């Protein structure tokens, strides 16, 4: 039972049940307020999102070509997501073995597993260890960008699925549940239009793979960062690969809605 529902039960409903059972009064009072109790219980919302691991490459860590910022100023979508969730009174803990963004204000939880320049295979090889050291209830996974210059889309999807398999192995061995929110990745123009074609094919194959797993009961959700974040690729990308601050905030809205099931608050850093 969600925390708020349990609190309502203990503070309101249980005492009423005990009171009505210990007197000779009729049940008129308890019956009349029953719809109110039912409404409170059905409409209460658990605001605790638990431990969230931002997982991926430089788009998770925050870096772009010719970037001279120190690590203390790097934050990507994570700061925007943190602020949006906090503004709506959600509770969460970002987890990971790395941290940056300590100079960003307002402050946010900078823990993550973002690795600049790394491919799906690198994440595959390390995710079990990272989860063992920093267990998560939910993983936000945006990966595949660096594979565009190394692997075919099919090969990159294979390694992405191996990441999911390693997470499943962690769940089985530790007897825990981990939800993965898997992103269809944003567009890139690193090598001209060919890289964009690679992304389209990768995302299509990624969706097919994910659907098969979801149909089998995998605790997996797919979000569409490519076309679902509202990115304007002519001005929301700083180097053709990595988003601007506005672009990162747009990504944060997609993660927010996937985590909460609610519409995200409006943009604050754009144009």
Largest sheet: 7 strands, mixed
What is the number of E strands? Answer: 8
CATH architecture annotation name of the largest domain: 3-Layer(aba) Sandwich
- Low-pLDDT runs of 5+ residues are 12-16, 22-31
The separation of the N and C termini measures 43 Å
Annotated CATH topology of the largest domain: Rossmann fold
CATH C-level class of the largest domain: Alpha Beta
Class derived from helix and strand content: alpha/beta
> How many domain units?
2
Average pLDDT, all residues: 88
| Radius of gyration, taken over Cα atoms and rounded to an integer in Å | 22 Å
Strand content: 5-15%
Q: What does it look like?
A:
Helices cover 48% and strands 14% of the residues. The chain is of the alpha/beta class and 271 residues long. The chain has two domains: 3-43; 48-260, Rossmann fold, CATH 3.40.50.1110. It is globular and about 40 Å long. The protein starts with a helix and ends in an 11-residue tail after the last helix.
């Amino acid at each position: 039972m969600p925390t708020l529902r349990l609190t309502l039960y203990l503070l309101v409903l249980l005492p009423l049940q005990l009171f009505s059972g210990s007197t000779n009064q009729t049940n008129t009072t308890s019956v009349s307020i029953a719809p109110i109790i039912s409404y409170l219980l059905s409409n209460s919302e658990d605001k605790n999102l638990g431990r969230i691991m931002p997982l991926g490459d430089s788009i998770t860590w925050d870096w772009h070509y010719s970037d001279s910022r120190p690590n203390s100023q790097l934050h990507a979508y994570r700061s925007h997501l943190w602020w949006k969730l906090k503004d709506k009174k959600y509770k969460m803990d970002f987890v990971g073995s790395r941290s940056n963004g300590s100079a960003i204000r307002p402050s946010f939880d900078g823990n993550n597993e973002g690795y600049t320049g790394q491919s799906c295979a690198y994440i595959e090889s390390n995710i079990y260890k990272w989860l063992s050291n920093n267990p998560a209830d939910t993983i936000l996974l945006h990966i595949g960008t660096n594979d565009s210059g190394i692997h075919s889309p099919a090969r990159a999807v294979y390694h992405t699925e191996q990441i999911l398999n390693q997470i499943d192995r962690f769940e089985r061995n530790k007897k825990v549940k981990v939800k993965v929110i898997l992103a269809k990745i944003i567009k890139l123009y690193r090598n001209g239009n060919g890289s964009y074609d690679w992304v389209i094919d990768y995302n299509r194959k990624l969706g097919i793979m994910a659907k098969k797993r979801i149909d089998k009961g995998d605790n997996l959700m797919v979000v569409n960062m490519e076309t679902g974040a509202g990115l304007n690729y002519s001005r929301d990308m700083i180097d053709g690969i990595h988003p601007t601050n506005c672009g990162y905030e747009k990504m944060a809205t997609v993660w927010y809605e996937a985590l909460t099931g609610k519409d995200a608050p409006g943009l604050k850093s754009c144009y």
